[in-house]
Amino acid sequence: MSPPRQAIVVGAGISGLACALRLAETGIGVRVLEAAEQPGGMISTVERDGFLFESGPQSFQMTPDLQELIRAANFESELIEADPKTPRYVLLDGKLHPAPMSPPTLLSTSLLGMGSKVRVLSEAFRHSKPPAHDESFADFVRRKFGTEILEHLAGPFVSGVFAGDPEQLSLRSTFPTMAVWEEEYGSIIRGAMKSRGDGPRTRPTLAGFKRGMASFIGALARKLGTGVTNGIRIDSLESAGNVGWSIHCTGTRTPEVLPAGAIVIATPAYEAARLVNKFAKGLSATLSGIPYAPVAVVAQGYRREHVGHALNGFGFLVPRKEGLRTLGNVWNSSLFPGRAPAGMVAITSFIGGAMDPHVVDMDEEPIADQVRKEIGKVLQITGPPVARQVWRHPKALPQYNLGHAERVQAIQDELENCRGIFVTGNYLEGPSIGSCISQGFRAAKSVLEHLSR
Q1: Cα separations (Å) of 361 from 52, 349, 372?
Q2: Where are the alpha helices (DSSP H) in 49-124?
Q3: Which of 317, 350, 327, 379 lies closest to 152, judged by CA?
Q4: How far apart are CA 174 and CA 178, in angstroms?
Q5: Contact 55, 396 (CB under 8 A)
Q6: Short-list 143, 152, 205, 193, CA closest to 171
Q7: Sign, CA torsion 142/145/150/152
Q8: Which of 246, 311, 328, 392 sits a CA distance of 20 to 30 A from 86?
Q9: In which region does residue 422 sit, left (phi positive, over 0), alpha (psi from -120 to 50) or beta (all else)?
Q10: Which fold does the domain 102-196 belong to in CATH?
Q11: For residue range 112-148, what is the model confidence (pLDDT) as tens digits?
Q12: Cβ pair 318, 94 in contact under 8 A
């Protein structure tokens, strides 16, 4: 008996849905099983009192694969873009300073002293060789540009993107292009110039959706129709020998056993570790070894007249030396229309991360109070919020710490002994929306190759 030409995707986050839709387009029978009552994973949108709040990603940068998925979901009309000239800010000594986004602004920025500016601009005329070992992001920045750049710019940036510790994050895994540039050209700036070519130099555009990120998840789920089942727990995966796999699961009614020629595990790494533990101890151990950083998200709406700052930009990042627990702040209503009612503003803050993991142990009210106190001073807020939503994510973001590339390679090697089992997710090759979709597409390609054999 040959394996069934059906694939089952476990997990209805953006990676799993992208994988499932790609498989469905090729005519493969596909089902998506999701433990939660709604698809989306970390992506969730709440509408409250005229405000639109996001629980996870607030925006995204467009990629070819993401653009393709938007077209496949017939969702182009819902796409909105922020002004590419929107400034970003960094908090330093209690004041907001525009982040330098180009060589001219680097020369004029008040975030850096003249020594740091010279060191950055002269990097193109120097040649360096990366160490043979896996280097932390912090060590790389200090070696190439100095401590001030790390503390005032690079450190806050990676804390905002990964909620991680720059001393632990792997350069090779977080910013692999930089590692390649230094290896090939001996200079990050020369490498960037070579890769850019002679084309126009434009800043990547931030985008979102009119009704929030969850509306796109809903469009993908509708495209898959009855192929998506929510509220179903996977109890175990069992090998059926040459005829594929069977999934033992429990839904709202009775236990069920589902056959599959291939299974794509599109869950967080720790849940994937549980699912494969019975038949792949080594793979399970490797997956379990990927750490996650906790983050709390605090979305608040204020009356415009109660906020003294103009909110003329994307938001701000906070260096650790400022002594705040808030990692960063996004001014949602300045980025996109429809985020707040007339005369109001919407602001989202992120607090916690790998260097402050106990924030999520607090109740929602103290978390919101901490954020309100910290951003209130910075943004000159004189009145209470009129709307608020708090999310606590104990395992928000996977950490691409030192040795991560070796862990990912070990996962791929160990999967060779589990024919018909595939994994995808934000813990592999990048946590961004675009990267997750690309990883989902690659998993679908691997499934097709497996089923064709």
Answers
A1: 26, 17, 18
A2: 64-72, 103-108, 114-121
A3: 317
A4: 9
A5: no
A6: 143
A7: positive
A8: 392
A9: beta
A10: protoporphyrinogen ix oxidase, domain 3 (1.10.3110)
A11: 999 999 999 899 999 999 999 999 999 999 999 999 9
A12: no
Domain boundaries, the chain: 6-37+230-290+400-452, 44-59+83-98+203-209+292-398, 102-196
Question: How far is Cα 396 from Cα 294, in angstroms, rounded to an integer?
Answer: 5
Show Cβ contacts of residue 159 under 8 Å, excluding neighbours closer than 6 positions.
166, 317, 318, 320, 327, 328, 353, 355
Phi, psi of 281 (to 5 degrees): -60, -45
CB 123 within 8 A of CB 145: yes
pLDDT in tens, 180-224: 999 999 999 999 888 876 555 556 689 999 999 999 999 999 999
**Which residues of the chain register pLDDT less than 70?**
1-4, 197-204, 252-253
The topology under which CATH files domain 44-59+83-98+203-209+292-398 is: Polyamine Oxidase; Chain A, domain 2 (3.90.660)
pLDDT at 251: 79
Q: What percent of the chain has pLDDT over 70?
A: 97
Phi then psi dihedrals of residue 109, to 5 deg: -65, 145
Own/partner long-range contacts of 337-341 (Cβ < 8 Å, ≥24 apart):
337/80, 337/210, 338/52, 338/210, 338/211, 339/51, 339/52, 340/50, 340/51, 340/52, 340/301, 341/49, 341/50, 341/51
Q: What are 232's two structure tokens?
A: 């179903």
* Same fold yes or no, 6-37+230-290+400-452 and 44-59+83-98+203-209+292-398: no
6-37+230-290+400-452 in CATH: which number? 3.50.50.60
pTM above 0.85, yes or no: yes
